[in-house]
Amino acid sequence: MSETLRLGDDTVVAILDRAARGINPVLDLALTDPFGIKGRTFAPTAEERGAAEALLDGIAWVLDTVRFPGTASWEKASDDERARWWVTRIGALNTIAVASPGMFGVLLNRLPIQDVLGFANQAVVLVAVAREHGVTGRSAQVDLLASVLCRRETDASAVLAGATPPSGSADGVSVWRPFGLIGALWRTAGTVRALSDELDKRPQPGGTYALLGNIPVVGVVAGYLGERGALVRAVKQAEKRIADRAPVPATIRRVR
């Protein structure tokens, strides 16, 4: 893309802000417990219980074992452990969808669908990881996404200060549907498509995986492994950026 046709920072910020605005409510949803199942992980199992109670306790045990957000094991986890959860659980699951076009090899690799899904997957996981490290402001999240995925240093708070707040809640309409965390991938993909040539600036799969991705069927496995590695690199870059910009705790500051 020529420099004259390069998307302006304001446009990139606006698109990433819309993406983050759609991702955050879904992540909030993961912490809710509408049926009281997660709450069972905080209390001892009743000695006498019926079949229905035993089933609910079994589901609660599974959720606690995988350290699902909102369970007792989640509450005991450190920030780093919670961040790793989003990468190893949701990131891995979404990466299957990202790699699926590899089933058709080079036929679909010529289309931008995999880059769009890969970018969206990284955006969802990066927002989740950022939240676990205390980056909860949307402007800060947008700046993080712009830095890691678009290789731009932006000031989203300044850009968005004069923007008109979006009306309604179009981005959150479907968060209550089943598999909301996976659905966030597809909604985010629809949003970031407008970034066009910015998509290939994100951390990418290695060259070997990209080459194998042109082979039908084999491309699924290669695509998964490649995108998985790219996601891990994106998270490491994000965490380094967060650490570099974290304020020094008052207890360890020294007057020079």
How would you describe this structure to a colleague?
The structure is a single chain. The longest helix is centred in the last third of the chain and has 28 residues, at 218-245. 60% of the residues lie in helices and 0% in strands. It has helices spanning 9-30, 51-65, 72-76, 79-99, 106-109, 113-132, 138-150, 156-161, 180-192, 207-212, 218-245. Helix 1 (9-30) runs antiparallel to helix 9 (180-192). The protein is globular. The protein is mostly helical and 256 residues long.
Offer a few descriptive terms.
single chain, mainly alpha, 2 domains, 11 helices, 0% strand, EcsC protein family protein
Question: Could you provide a short overview of the structure?
Answer:
This protein has 256 residues and is mainly α. The protein contains eleven helices and no strands. Helix 1 crosses helix 6, helix 1 crosses helix 7 and helix 6 packs across helix 7.
Describe the secondary-structure layout.
Layout lengths: L8 H22 L20 H15 L6 H5 L2 H21 L6 H4 L3 H20 L5 H13 L5 H6 L18 H13 L14 H6 L5 H28 L11
Helix pairs in contact: 1-6, 1-7, 1-9, 4-6, 4-11, 6-7, 6-9, 6-11, 7-11
